[in-house]
Every structure is written in structure tokens, then in C-alpha cells.
Automatic annotation (TrEMBL):
Region: Disordered, residue numbers: 395-415
Recorded superkingdom: Bacteria
Family membership noted in the UniProt record: Belongs to the glycosyl hydrolase 13 family.
Gene Ontology biological process: oligosaccharide catabolic process
SMART domains for the chain: Aamy
Organism lineage: Bacteria, Bacillati, Actinomycetota, Actinomycetes, Kitasatosporales
Protein name as annotated: Oligo-1,6-glucosidase
């Protein structure tokens, strides 16, 4: 049994929308998206029906890793506006029924953060992990007057904050215990940072690399304790706020204290198989060292929904009603939905699935109009992670209309180039066409929001775990998706679909259901 307060009631109805702030809307023509740009688009987001926005880091930063190298946790980067501009955005968002979460980069700072520059000159400072002499494996030579070397958490310019080690070793004196002075100061700093932004009206945080805090931590036992302590503090001081982890193992992160965790391309016993087998196998963006894998939502029809369903069953059984699993369409680190062998016409089925499955949906900005991954872009603010791994392709400007830079910015030098395809999708064109993906996504969100059986707490029963994929929600709604480029059929047993709430290319004939290529449907069952 969890000892936490139940998640705030609003979370069960959350439809997350991830905004990459530098790429969403540029209000002042300097080429970089900003808070006022987002504020001017709140009407649109409210029209779409999303109710919880999460913003990638928008804090002062040298932007070596697009803002994941924080130089000041308490002040925003001037390129996005001021703290007051953020407060205004959050206020007006609330007026539109939209909550805003920030990104808490808990495990590391920039090497330009004053904590680090001070630490690099002071051998008695333990906010970071320092080897007093030499340069052990994985460490980086001190840039300051302090001798020795520090441990980075991601890029070398992102020194790991010291939350201690689960296992100490006299031969490696930098392995401090979790209750040493540095780790205690850092845990307190997390509370200070969270308190600051929650006080300004923010509703919580997506937490970057949440599993990375305590080093050499088998089973993440000690890292979990850090989050448990933090959740108890949140429950007491900000009971309406939520924390959403970048961890990828809800079975561990939610019992540790997170209200919800993403299924990600990595993490957990299957190393991200749930999401990778669905629609993010890396094709189009990433080679990593992933095993070649056919996605269920690829047109070839060679994939299977089973790895996803099994991972979901396992995780949701472990969670009970203590928290939620979040299912993203994509994010700023991996492929968009529209990439590799998957084209825009194949996206409706993916959204029908995402918005009817008992997880919390997270839509990555632009996926709702079918923006694609753009190959071969310049390395921008640390976007390149490997020879065939450039995250820039998933971070291009939001496509609003037919104006300059697709309406993103009037600058000649936008943050990243817009999709050069003259037929690129835009919000304006899709809003004007009620057969568009955007309208479908909007209707699906509205349906989900008005139908508790389709939310994360409704029951689910899988009727056919193949092509087509068929499931029943809350004993009342039959959902069908066929991501394959060929017609498929399956038996329906006693189930009798009645009124279609949303359907394209699905028919039933007696006890057989047939779905055309990329067909989908949500039907009321006839009792
Ligand atoms: C995960 C973030 O999503 C990614 O963009 C970033 O580069 C690393 N963490 C380091 O903070
Ligand atoms: Ca701007």
C-alpha cells in the first residue's frame, strides 16, 4: 500500500501536450520561440482540448544541451521572456483550463552554474562528485583551481549533482553516502527550486533523468528514497502538484513517489520495448544499439501489439490505483510519429489507440498535425548524439500557417529550419478541414474527456491482439485499429458494435469484423 496522498483528481483527466519552447511560436521575431508566443496560442490549445502543457527547460543556460544545462534554476532564460512573462502565461493558461508543468533537471547543472564554478575552486565543496586527484574512468578534469576531476551526468559540461552512492568503497572516496552533507544540500535545493515555481502557479514538473540521482544504485533503491522524501514533502506543502518522471519504469518510479511515469524508448526490464514496439523503433532518427524491431504501427503489418500490452499489464498491475503510466506520441529526443516507413495517412490509427488506451496521453507538439522528422539538419544546441542520431529533426518549428517560416517566426534565422516540403501540414489548413488529423485528434480528446470509461481508470479487455487490434473499454466501448496497409479481419464472438462514435473503414458482418488499411473505429456496444 502506498503511503502517499492520492494523486490530485485533475491528473486522471490529463491530456498532456509537450511544448519545446524554442520551436513553438516566436512572438518578437528573434527566431526563437518564447512565452508570449505560447500565450498567443492558448486559444488554439484550448480549442484542441489539451489541458496540461509540459515545457522543456526554459531556465538560464548556455544552451549546450538546449537548456538541459541549467545555469540558474530560479530564473528563466531571457530568450524566452522574463519570470513575469512566464507567470502571465501560466495565469492565462489557467484561464483556459490548462495547467503548466516545467522541466526539473534534477541530476546535473551546467558547468557554468555558480554552484559548479564555486565547487571547481573549493576542495571542501561537495555539491558535485569530485575525485580529489587524478582522473578516474568517466570523470572530467577540473576546470578550476581545485585539483582532480568531476563526474558528468550526460554531456561533459553537465556535472552530476552529488546525491551520494548507494555503495561506498574506501578505495574510491568520492563515493559519499546518501546522507553526507553534499547530498543533503542537493535534496534541499530540489525543494527550494520546486517551491519557487509552484509558488508562481506552476502545477508540477516533468523530471529529467529521474533515475540518475544516486550512483551505483542497484534496483534504484536509494534514488527511490530521494523521491519518496520529496513526494511526502509535496503532499504536505503542494498537494495539488504532480511530478512526472523521465524514468521509463513505472513499476519502480510510481511506488517511489512519482504520480506518473512515461513509457519511454528505454528503461525497465525490457529496456523500453513497450514504446519501441508500438511506434518508436528509431527508424528515421536513431540507430543506437537497439535490436531491429518492427513497430506495430508500421504499415508492413509485421509488428505485434503484444509486447506493449504485456508491459502495460505488468506495470498497471504493480501500480494499482497509486499512479499512472503516461504514453507519449514522441518527444524531443526520439523520432516523431511521422518518420521512417510511417506517413501522415497512417497517424489517425495511432491517435485512436493512444487516446483510448488506459494511460495518460502525451502529445508531442506538431504530432497532432502529422509533422514529420526532418533528416540532415545542422547540429543545434547539442542535438547530435551519434553518427545517425540527430534530435534536431524532431525539434523543428511548429507549422502554423502559410506565412514566413510556416508562421513560426518572421526572422530570417529561425531556431531550426522549417520542413521544406511545400505540402507540409499546417494548423491553419487542418483547422479549416474537418476531415483532417487535427480535427480527429480534437474529437478524440473531447470524446475521452467526456467518457470516463475511456480514461485511465476504465477497465480494458483485449479482444484481438493482432491486426486489427480490438479492445473493449469499460464494458461499453469497442475500439478497433488496423495500422497495416492491408485489409484485416477477426472474429468478434458475441460482441455487437452499435453506434459508431468515430470510424473509418471498419465494418462488421455477423460475428466478423473487417478493417480496411489504416481503418479505425470506436463503437458503442449493443447490450
Ligand atoms: C533527457 C532529456 O530529455 C534530453 O533532451 C537531455 O539531453 C538529457 N536528459 C540530459 O539532460
Ligand atoms: Ca522570440
Amino acid at each position: 500500500m502506498s503511503s502517499f496522498r492520492p494523486a490530485p483528481a485533475w491528473l486522471a483527466d490529463a491530456v498532456f501536450y509537450q511544448i519545446y519552447p524554442q520551436s513553438f511560436a516566436d512572438s518578437n521575431g528573434d527566431g526563437i520561440g518564447d512565452f508570449d508566443g505560447i500565450r498567443e496560442r492558448l486559444d488554439h490549445l484550448a480549442w484542441l482540448g489539451v489541458n496540461t502543457v509540459w515545457l522543456n527547460p526554459c531556465f538560464a543556460s548556455p544552451f549546450g544541451d538546449a537548456g538541459y544545462d541549467v545555469a540558474d534554476y530560479l530564473n528563466v532564460a531571457p530568450r524566452y521572456g522574463s519570470n513575469d512573462d512566464l507567470a502571465r502565461l501560466v495565469d492565462q493558461a489557467r484561464g483556459h483550463g490548462i495547467r503548466v508543468l516545467l522541466d526539473l533537471v534534477a541530476g546535473h547543472t551546467s558547468d557554468r552554474h555558480p554552484w559548479f564554478t564555486a565547487s571547481a575552486d573549493d576542495p571542501d565543496d561537495h555539491r558535485y562528485i569530485w575525485a580529489a586527484e587524478g582522473r578516474p574512468d568517466g570523470f572530467v578534469a577540473s576546470p578550476g583551481s581545485r585539483p582532480g576531476a568531476y563526474l558528468p551526468n550526460f554531456f561533459t559540461f553537465q556535472p552530476a549533482l552529488n546525491f551520494g552512492y548507494a555503495r561506498t568503497d574506501p578505495a574510491e572516496p568520492w563515493r559519499q553516502p546518501v546522507d553526507a552533507e553534499g547530498p543533503r544540500a542537493n535534496r534541499e535545493a530540489l525543494r527550494t527550486v520546486m517551491d519557487h515555481w509552484l509558488g508562481l502557479g506552476l502545477s508540477g514538473f516533468r523530471v529529467d533523468m529521474a533515475a540518475s540521482l544516486v550512483k551505483d544504485d542497484p534496483g534504484k533503491t536509494e534514488t527511490s528514497k530521494v523521491w519518496t522524501e520529496l513526494r511526502h514533502w509535496l503532499d504536505r506543502t503542494h498537494p495539488d502538484a504532480v511530478i512526472l518522471s523521465e524514468w521509463g519504469e513505472p513499476e519502480v518510479s510510481v511506488p517511489a513517489g512519482f504520480h506518473t511515469d512515461f513509457f519511454l524508448q528505454f528503461g525497465g526490464p525490457t529496456d523500453g520495448l513497450a514504446l519501441r514496439s508500438l511506434w518508436s523503433n528509431g527508424s528515421g532518427t536513431v540507430n543506437l544499439d537497439w535490436d531491429p524491431l518492427d513497430c506495430f504501427f508500421d504499415p508492413s503489418g509485421k509488428g505485434s501489439p503484444r509486447p506493449f500490452v504485456e508491459a502495460w499489464q505488468q506495470a498497471s498491475a504493480a501500480l494499482g490505483d497509486s499512479g499512472f503510466i503516461s504514453l507519449p506520441t514522441a518527444n524531443h529526443d526520439f523520432s516523431r510519429l511521422n518518420c521512417g516507413p510511417r506517413s501522415a495517412e497512417q497517424l489517425p490509427v495511432a491517435f485512436v489507440f493512444q487516446l483510448t488506451w488506459p494511460t495518460l496521453p502525451a502529445i508531442y507538439y506538431g504530432d497532432e498535425i502529422g509533422m514529420r522528422y526532418i533528416p540532415d539538419l545542422p547540429d543545434t544546441e547539442g542535438s547530435v548524439l551519434g553518427p545517425a542520431y540527430n534530435r534536431a529533426g524532431s525539434r523543428t518549428p511548429m507549422q502554423w500557417d502559410d506565412g514566413p517560416n510556416a508562421g513560426f517566426s518572421t526572422s530570417d534565422h529561425p531556431y531550426l529550419p522549417v520542413d521544406p516540403d511545400p505540402g507540409r501540414p499546417t494548423v491553419a489548413a487542418q483547422r479549416a478541414d474537418d476531415t483532417s488529423l487535427l480535427h480527429l485528434v480534437r474529437r478524440l480528446i473531447a470524446l475521452r474527456t467526456s467518457t470516463p470509461e475511456l480514461g485511465p481508470d476504465g477497465s480494458v479487455e483485449v479482444v484481438h491482439a493482432g491486426y486489427p487490434f480490438v479492445h473493449v473499454r469499460g464494458g461499453r466501448y469497442l475500439v478497433v485499429v488496423n495500422p497495416r496497409e492491408e485489409r484485416t479481419s477477426c472474429p468478434l464472438g458475441d460482441l455487437r458494435p452499435g453506434r459508431a462514435l468515430e470510424a473509418s473503414g471498419v465494418v462488421t458482418d455477423g460475428g466478423t469484423l473487417t478493417a480496411e488499411a489504416f481503418g479505425y473505429g470506436i463503437f458503442e456496444l449493443t447490450p
